[in-house]
Amino acid sequence: MSDENRSEDRSRAHVFVSGRVQGVFYRANTRDAARDRDVDGWVRNLDDGRVEAVFEGPRDAVEEMVEWCHTGSPSAVVDDVDAEYGEPTGERGFTIRR
């Protein structure tokens, strides 16, 4: 039962960020922001110029990360953030995928 309760406290967001978000340290800043909030997951650049990320962790911290994506790194210009929420799948740690 405790595992079930813990999963209810955790959330997952799958995020796509568009704008000038590549070549501006967006991924590194995302990793640092996620680690500061104890959020697990990953971030990567997509061939179409967007950044894709997955955040898993406490519901409030995941919401903070989605909000953070609207600004991102200091040099980024974010046009749009699309987030889909779902059940956590057990991400551990936060990495930059290539």
Describe the structure.
Pfam families: Acylphosphatase. It catalyses: an acyl phosphate + H2O = a carboxylate + phosphate + H(+). InterPro entries: Acylphosphatase, Acylphosphatase-like_dom, Acylphosphatase-like_dom_sf, Acylphosphatase_CS. The chain has 98 residues and is an alpha+beta fold. The protein has a single domain (2-96), classed as 2-Layer Sandwich (Alpha-Beta Plaits), CATH 3.30.70.100. It contains three helices and five strands. It has helices at 2-9, 26-36, 59-69, and strands spanning 10-20, 40-45, 51-58, 77-86, 94-96. The chain has a five-stranded mixed β-sheet with strand order 4-1-3-2-5. It is globular and about 35 Å long. Residues 1-7 have low confidence and may be disordered.
Which SSEs are present, and which pair or pack?
Layout: H1 2-9, E1 10-20, H2 26-36, E2 40-45, E3 51-58, H3 59-69, E4 77-86, E5 94-96
Parallel strand pairs: 2-5
Antiparallel strand pairs: 1-3, 1-4, 2-3
Characteristic terms for this protein:
98 residues, Alpha-Beta Plaits, Acylphosphatase-like_dom, EC 3.6.1.7, acylphosphatase, acylphosphatase activity
